[in-house]
Amino acid sequence: MSQQGHAVAGSGGLVLGVVQKLDEKHHIIPEYKIEEHQAEAEVRRFLQAILQARSSLQDEMMLLKEHPHANELLPILESHHLMLSDPELQAGTKCFIEQEHINAEWALKRCLHGFEQTFEHMEDVYLKSRKADIIQVGQRIFQCLDVSPLAVNQAQSIMLAADFAPSDVVTMWRDGVAGFVASQGGKDSHTMIVARGVGLTGLVGAQGLFEQAEDGDILLLNAEENTWVINPSPDECLAYETQQHDLDKKRDALQAYATQSSHSRDGFYLPLLANIEFEEEVDIALQYGVDGIGLFRTEFLFMQSDTLPSEAEQAAYYKKIVQGMGDKPVTFRLLDVGADKLAHVQTLFGDYDGENPALGLRGVRMLLRRPEILKAQLRAIVGCGHTSEISILVPMVVSVEEMQAVRTLLEEAKLELNIQQNIALGCMIEVPAAALIADDLAKVSDFFSIGSNDLVQYGLAVDRSDEHVGYLYDANHEAIKRLIQMAVDAANQQHIPITVCGELAANTAWTKTFLAMRVSGLSMTARHVLAVRKQLRDL
Ligand code: PEP
Ligand code: MG
Q1: pLDDT at 31
Q2: Which helix (H) or strand (E) element contains residue 429?
Q3: pLDDT above 50 for 474
């Protein structure tokens, strides 16, 4: 019997593949059969891993004794040390190896699963929560068994995990993975945005799937309708083939729009631009015939390394993007780390530990806190040797002063590098405050760009990455419409261009509204440009 369910959001596409579950650290736990005569060596390998895990834990405990929070942390590690010596854990795993002739990792995984189930069914809330300790102890042993981190090349694999970072999506795409499913995540989370950008079929917020699926199960992902089926029946597979065929036909038909201009039937030109995160997306964008890059999320360059890229490294990277786009315009969005890209803020900026990162040091706030980083980025952009039109967008603006401070540094950078070319400085309207004071911001900005993803998040107080409130994340809410209208009115009044660069730009139900509002451009995931252009040309 097949099992099926729903997810909060999908990146588009259909795929049939084989389940590969990943643990919390995105490790693949290898599962394979061994010969009877190999069992003894396999048990030895397992026991050695336990010894190694215990000794490294002891080292950590020694180090921790100096730590100011040692009193709280030490008892936890001591309990982990006891668990590592637990005779049931050792005997249970040994038994699986010897009787079922399976490798140590698989045997340990099955044994841990038994423990987790026991804790899960406990009445006592405290004991129930101890399941987390079992998982952490398991991680330590897996590490000593030398389980390799996410590095995959299985074209048929669909990766399942609790969550994936945007960079994981790129790694999977580069490695040719068939698809992915995360239990957590929302529609416009950056993980979903990147998956749509590179065209990797995936689902987020697919609760229940991870628990029900086993490694090796066949999984059907429908990221068009946000559904999944484990071990589909022959009829379901047939329906998948038919739907795949229809989807291919639809895509082929849309491809004709790649070479057409972005004009409405009555001759109004509405540039359709691409949002990109990685250099590989330049080629993808060109295949879809975009009119330029409306949003280059530069933070993804910073997220690829544990150290800050130098000005020269940045300039070289930006140059590749600009040259790749030929004579088409490129808009660079200044570094926007923070919120769901927090891990990298901590790596790069070291000293930030705000309790509520979505409302903390994010975007322009972080940049103004570290002006030397902002200045280096501005110099890299203006000095990247561009010959086409480039502009710069400031993220998370809430005040006129923030725009003025960035402009001062931009002028300095241009002066230092002797750049005379006009470089427009735009303000992202992605916080309700910015929409509300859009008339003032319009006086200090060369253009606006509406970041609808965050405008919805902050306007409706709904975390865009949280699957539990995904049902509330709705750009059609009257409050969002009014905020957008305010920003458009202020831009029109001040005669500055205004584009939309959030995911809403790709929603064809809004194309007519944007056209009527006299919006000056729509920037979206490149593959959506074709459907929007088709809609535009019919208007
Ligand atoms: C937005 O908020 O709409 C936007 C385009 O920026 P990001 O999705 O990178 O936050
Ligand atoms: Mg944003």
Answers
A1: 77
A2: strand 424-429
A3: yes
CATH class of the domain defined by 36-144: mainly alpha
Q: Please report, for the chain, the start and end positions of each structural domain, with discontinuous segments joined by +.
A: 3-21+151-237, 36-144, 263-537
* Ligand 1 lined by 292 (C-beta under 6 Å): no
Is 60 exceeded by the pLDDT of residue 343? no
Atom of ligand 1 nearest to the CA of 336: 9
* Residue minimizing CA distance to atom 10 of ligand 1: 454
Let me know: does 271 contact 292? Beta carbons within 8 Å.
yes
Residue 322 has pLDDT above 50, yes or no: yes
Return residues with CB closer than 5 A to ligand 2 (ion).
430, 451, 454
Q: What is the pLDDT of residue 152?
A: 44
How many angstroms separate the CA atoms of 101 and 369, rounded? 58
Question: How far apart are the CA of 450 and the centre of ligand 2, in A?
Answer: 9
Is 528's C-beta closer than 6 angstroms to any atom of ligand 1?
A: no
Mean pLDDT, rounded, for 414-419: 96
Ligand 1 pocket, residue 183 CB under 6 Å: no
Q: Is 308 in the pocket of ligand 1 (CB under 6 A)?
A: no
First to last CA, the chain: 47
pLDDT at 153: 44
* CATH architecture of the domain covering 263-537: Alpha-Beta Barrel (3.20)
Per-residue model confidence (pLDDT) at position 118: 84
307-311: list long-range contacts, CB under 8 Å, 24+ apart.
307/348, 308/348, 308/373, 310/376, 311/376, 311/377, 311/379, 311/380, 311/383
The distance of Cα 234 from the centroid of its chain, to the nearest Å, equals: 34
Of 439, 468, 441, 470, the residue nearest 457 (C-alpha): 470
The best mutation among 335, 341, 428 to test binding of ligand 1, ranked by most ligand atoms within 8 Å of the C-beta, falls on 428
Residue of 501, 510, 523, 525 best suited for mutating to test ligand 1, as the one with most atoms within 8 Å of CB: 501
Q: What is the pLDDT of residue 346?
A: 60
Confidence of residue 345 (pLDDT cuts 50, 70, 90): low
- Looking at per-residue pLDDT, the higher value among 168 and 272 belongs to 272
pLDDT-derived band of residue 68, with 50, 70 and 90 as boundaries? Answer: low
pLDDT at 350 (0 to 100): 63
pLDDT at 206 over 90: yes
Task: Tell me, using a 6 A CB cutoff, whether residue 14 lines ligand 1.
Answer: no
The ligand whose atoms approach the alpha carbon of 190 most closely is 1
Residue nearest to atom 8 of ligand 1 (CA): 453
Q: Assign domain 3-21+151-237 one CATH number from 3.40.50.2300, 3.30.70.20, 3.40.640.10, 3.50.30.10.
A: 3.50.30.10
Is the CB–ligand 1 distance for residue 363 below 6 Å? no
Compute the distance between CA of residue 22 and CA of residue 180 in angstroms, rounded to an integer. Answer: 11
Closest C-alpha to ligand 1, atom 9: 297
